[in-house]
Hints:
Blueprint: E1 2-3, E2 28-35, E3 40-47, E4 59-61, E5 67-73, E6 76-77, E7 80-82, E8 87-90, E9 101-108, E10 121-123, E11 126-129, E12 145-153, E13 158-161, E14 164-171, E15 174-184, E16 189-192, E17 195-201, E18 204-210, H1 212-236, E19 244-250, E20 255-258, E21 261-265, H2 278-284, E22 288-289, E23 292-294, H3 302-317, H4 321-333, H5 352-373, H6 375-389, E24 393-394, H7 396-404, H8 412-420, E25 427-437, E26 440-449, E27 458-466, E28 469-477, E29 481-488, E30 492-497, H9 517-521, E31 526-529, H10 539-542, E32 556-560, H11 562-571, H12 578-582, E33 592-595, E34 601-605, H13 609-619, E35 627-630, E36 636-639, E37 648-649
Parallel strand pairs: 2-12, 18-19, 19-21, 22-23, 23-24, 31-32, 32-34
Antiparallel strand pairs: 1-7, 2-3, 3-9, 4-8, 5-6, 5-9, 7-8, 10-11, 11-16, 12-15, 13-16, 14-15, 17-18, 20-21, 25-26, 26-29, 27-28, 27-30, 30-37, 33-34, 33-35, 35-36
Helix pairs in contact: 1-2, 2-3, 3-5, 4-5, 5-6, 5-8, 6-7
This protein binds zinc ion.
Zinc ion binds at residues 281, 285, 303, 306.
Amino acid sequence: MRLGVLLCSAVLWVAGGVALASETFEGITLEVELDPGTSRLEGRFEVDPGQLDPASLRRFRLDPGIAVDAVTLGGQAVEFYRSGDGWLELARDPAADAGPLAIRYGARLPLPAEARPGSGYLGPDGGYLPPGADWYPRRPDAEPHAVRIELKSLGGHLGVTSGSRVAEERRGDEYQATFEHPAGRALAVATGPWESAEQRVGEVEVRTLFPAGLEQRFGETYREQAAKYLQRFNDEIGPYPLATFTIAASPQPVGLAFSGFTLLGERVIPLPFIPYTSLGHEVLHAWWGTGVYVDYSGGNWSEGLTTYMADYQFKRERGEGREERGQWLRDYAALPAGEDRAHGSFRGGNSGAARIAGYHRGAMLWRMLEDRIGREVFLTGARALYDEWRFVEADWDAVIGAFDDVTDEDLRPFFAQWVERAGAPELELTELHRGARGDGWRVQGRLQQRDEQAPWELYVPLELETENGRETHWVELNEVEKGISLETSSRPLAIAIDPDWRMFRHLAADESPAILRQGALDPEARVVALDDAEASEVAPWLGRVPGSADDAEGTRIVLGSHSSVAVWLERRDLPNDPAVLANAGEMGPGARAWAVPDTRLIVVSGADADARREAAAALRHRSHYSYLLPGAKGAWQTGLWAQPGIWQELADDE
Ligand SMILES: [Zn+2]
């Protein structure tokens, strides 16, 4: 620890120009001034110790890179200490009647280009003070708490911070705005060279803060879409918890949600699908994440529920729900066993194994719950969760309790299994018979699961194809195997276990084509580099350079020219022509990538390193396919290897 030197300097600024919304505000007041020209942050924290527990105002988190200019109590200097690991500690508890406690501090922030990913920055391109970072004197154990933020941004930049914007003023190049949050946590600020435009939805003001070029082209689309999402989730779950919602542009390639605003990368905003996918996801975080807060100690439940109620529902409404679920299960099938994690172990991260555990497993959990309790009861549970836990940190127990309370069923075993358990069930139907029964028909057989030691408790959809269409028969399976007997009035022709991928499960071999993602999900993947190929050529895909190998013993990415790769595969008796496998017709001469069926081999071949790099870059967003082939006219052709499927034809009893 070192003793802080108390300095006397001028008051930061007087908030005289801002019409304060509620003069009797009780809670923390933060004044934040950001100057993009000098990259300076100046801050002032103030609170009346009479309003809070004075003992909670003794120790604060504050980034060691931020200098404290003064700590005063009722205008009198207070002695304080800074520790090297980021604590600011006062010499004594502030007395409740001693007058306001004020902390003045400041720092020079890095420019956006110099900042580490996720850390704060400030410069002509914009400013960012991240949530959960110690850019203000923070009491992590006391959050959430009421806070008023008086934000001042210089150099013509506008700004946004956590909470509802209750007042603002622009004077020349200076922007001042006041934000209030009744229960703020992990506060964040963003500023930038933006234009602002607004639209109302009910009582809520929706604003875009985009650079002029982006505002002209995309501002209106983003405001209108955000307004639709706010209305939708308002109707589904309960009232949006703040008075304003802002969509701001970021020089970094992000999509982040904060209390009252979302940050989207300047290069993300022009992508045509974002207003119809990611934007809705970020808006829904106003309910799950920054509405009901996440108590991370037991895992992060918010991404799965948000993915389910936003991204997935949008797909479902476009008739693409089944395809999305199939993609999640194929990704899971491509995951090496060592990377398989329980949903409850997810804290954060949105790629690779973390994405599967947090987003896909989570969304499938809610999908399965809805199959069990129905859409209306599911939404009743969601409303109860929001109503009871808004602006409070909820752990898994709280989430489960909200849904459990709205049903007569005991949902706890269901949640316990799907939250706490890694792995997935693997199912099989054997000894199938079809027989006439009275006016109708009966199908009998045995339903089995692989996990003999600890069988899953399952609610399994068995799908019958009959002369008059498809029928779903739900069967409970809580043991390793059981006999099934399905009655139907129409002559049944074939049967399959969950052909529409409504359960989180291991796909059967006949419904699970090899996909390119295998190469990305296995941290042990190695490159087999033929000719003059180099492992670094796959960095545009994987974001790293894997080690090398010359065998085919594990997950391997085989790199080289078309001809040398073909020879390598032929020597191992493996198929070597992806156009034949894909039934793809004419192929251009360019680079190609494909997953060799029934192996853990990925091929990336091309005339030279540049061509292979280009294919690797294209894989970043196309790894969920089996192949990426150059079309005759230059555009990529993608697809999955055809699979026999899992329908079993039914024969009459002898
Ligand atoms: Zn999210």
